[in-house]
Write a structure and sequence with these properties.
Helix content is 37%, strand content 22%. It is an alpha/beta fold. The protein is elongated, with a radius of gyration of 28 Å. It is an enzyme of class 3 (hydrolase).
Length: 472
């Protein structure tokens, strides 16, 4: 990094991980200080840490110190580097693990000579975006069948503390149909960091995975840089190499809490529940990186958003819902079909997938809704009809076959299992499905039709042969 010979030593204050330094004649352009640029903090003639400029007010510059300010004194000096934060981008980063400052932490070879790219760039021009039309297969039936994930979609996983959302996210990273998976963890405890790292290694997908991790013990400022680094790398894989990239973020509520903490330290006026007024725009800036690029690859974003107290009106999930295209609701250890929604699923269902996809999806959800109502009637000791008993039986099968997070099958296998489950619980006419679909997919009925057709053709051939023999 280029370094200036100028050192500024007039430290005005140190609050949390923020310092304020006075820079004389800043408005005259003598100092290379611009918003978002990096600076180097030195103490006792030694490099202490990198920092990032987050505010410029006349001759006062506020910086976030990456290593924190513990042990830093007002005798420190600040040197402006004149360039923004950058992330390493090259084929060598596949399989590597970086911290929130972009430094390798996996013990692998150094990447100092590899190309660097700027982070936190602008979103893609809407004119250059391609309409979403391709499915991202995850082999998770509650996603593939009922809330199909589409390339360039941005969608959160709404959950609460204690739910297995990280285990679920790791499964998607391992099973998803993607060329490159970019993972960004914010505020992870060590157990979660170790889990993701071990899961990717044991599944053999590390060669297509890039990890950026900010642990709970790391500086808060790095938590704000982690998703930007992941998204910058994902964009370049998609644009420069035409890769289908899946970005996994966890946890965006931790990211928003870091923004709140920094905002309070900067004496910003909080808005809803202590969060800053720009929460929506900051979240949208990251989510809008999801894009299907014309003539290139795509970036799809799947992000965990925890809801404190299971409160969907909390500022983070509330603002997220206005930005994203649906949500997956992880509740009681399963993906809740009623709280989940993919607003882009109709772009691929029946077009890229089988012709029965949308019909079987709606029918399965309708019967599951009836099973929930029947279970409520049973709990209140109401008399159950024969249909209620069928619905309860169907609901039990639906939960055990599709809703459990360990369920893994291809889309076609899941659709066939849907038909099998319907056939085990109901008669064909009870499903209200089109007769053409019943003839084609209903277990036993389709085989009977084929058998009857084959038998009829054989009978016709036999009759024709007998007629020919009579003429002879």
């Amino acid at each position: 990094m280029p370094q200036s010979l100028l050192r500024y030593t007039n430290i005005l204050s140190i609050v949390g991980d923020l310092i304020r330094v006075q820079v004389p004649n800043l408005t005259a352009g003598n100092a290379r200080a611009s918003y978002g640029d990096l600076a180097m903090i030195e103490q006792s003639g030694q490099v202490y840490s990198l920092a990032q400029i987050i505010k410029i007010d006349h001759e006062e510059v506020s910086l976030q110190v990456f290593a924190g300010t513990k042990g830093l004194s007002t005798d420190a000096a600040v040197c402006f580097l004149g360039e923004p934060m950058k992330a390493t981008y090259s084929p060598n980063i596949l399989g590597r693990i970086f911290n929130g400052a972009g430094e390798p932490i996996d013990g692998g070879p150094a990447l100092e000579q590899d190309p660097k790219i700027e982070i936190d760039g602008p979103s893609v021009n809407p004119v250059r975006r391609v309409l979403a039309s391709r499915m991202v297969r995850t082999n998770v039936p509650m996603i593939d069948v009922f809330n199909t994930l589409v390339e360039s979609q941005k969608i959160p996983i709404f959950s609460v503390a204690g739910e297995p959302y990280n285990r679920f996210l790791a499964r998607i990273a391992i099973q998803a149909e993607a060329d490159v998976v970019v993972f960004a963890g914010m505020g992870l405890i060590f157990d979660d960091y170790h889990f993701f790292r071990t899961a990717f290694e044991e599944a053999g997908v590390s060669s297509r995975t890039v990890m950026f991790t900010n642990q709970a013990s790391d500086p808060t400022v790095e938590r704000l840089l982690t998703p930007d680094m992941a998204l910058a790398v994902a964009e370049h894989f998609a644009v420069k190499e035409s890769k289908k990239v899946l970005v996994l973020l966890t946890d965006m509520t931790s990211y928003a809490d870091a923004m709140k903490e920094i905002g309070v330290a900067m004496d910003k006026i909080p808005a809803n529940r202590g969060y800053m007024g720009d929460l929506y725009s900051q979240l949208a800036k990251r989510y809008e990186k999801a894009c299907d690029y014309k003539g290139a690859g795509s970036v799809t974003i799947l992000a965990v958003t925890t809801m404190p107290g299971n409160d969907v009106t909390h500022p983070v999930p509330d603002n997220t819902g206005y930005i994203t295209e649906g949500q997956f609701y992880l509740h009681n250890g399963v993906i809740d079909p009623f709280g989940s929604l993919s607003r882009l699923k109709q772009m691929v269902q029946g077009k890229e997938t089988r012709d029965d996809h949308a019909h079987i999806m709606n029918t399965m959800i309708r019967f599951y809704s009836d099973s929930v109502n029947a279970q409520q009637k049973q709990a209140m000791a109401f008399e159950l009809s024969s249909y209620d008993l069928k619905a309860i039986r169907f609901g039990d099968k639906f939960k055990s076959r599709f809703m459990i997070l360990d369920a893994r099958m291809s889309l076609e296998e899941a659709l066939d299992l849907c038909w099998q489950t319907l056939a085990e619980c109901f008669e064909p006419e009870e499903t209200l499905l089109k007769q053409s679909l019943l003839d084609k997919y209903w277990p036993g009925l389709a085989e009977a039709k084929e058998f009857a057709k084959a038998d009829g053709e054989a009978g016709a051939d036999k009759a024709a042969g007998a007629a020919a023999h009579t003429e002879a």
